[in-house]
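debug: dumping io for the single-chain case to check the tokenizer round-trip. Nothing else runs in this session.
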Amino acid sequence: MSSQQKQSASRAAGAPAAPEPTGPRPARLSAAAALTAVEGLALAALGAYMLIMGLAGSPDSPQQAEMGGLTVLALAVLPLVAARGLWLRRRWSRGPSLITQIVALPVAWTLVNGGGALIAAGIGLAVAALTVLVLLVNPTATEALGIGPRETP
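debug: decoded output
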């Protein structure tokens, strides 16, 4: 039986979950949570704008604009939930936040190659994504989330 199966079996048997981290939240973790929340809020704002313009504006395809807005709003949920989890020091929140940042890097590259004002947006997104990645792999942040080295069998 693997250690993961043992942990699942012990949880099912009523064993207590991992203890919550104690002590003050490290500044690195707070910064990662804040930046992840800003990314989520920016996505939500973009989705709302797309939805409103699809409904009130005169797009070429209103259905496509509305569906695009709803899709972006749905995508905004992941970083917002991850940011809340990071703020509350939940160990599960690190994965969704890391995934959000990794997905943001190609988006930033596309924005930079778009030219004009998109260059600034792309650079800002890339800087934010790289900053959060660095903050979340930092040992201080991983310890604050209760993530330690893997146990050897």
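debug: round-trip ok. Residues 13 and 64 are 49 Å apart (CA to CA).
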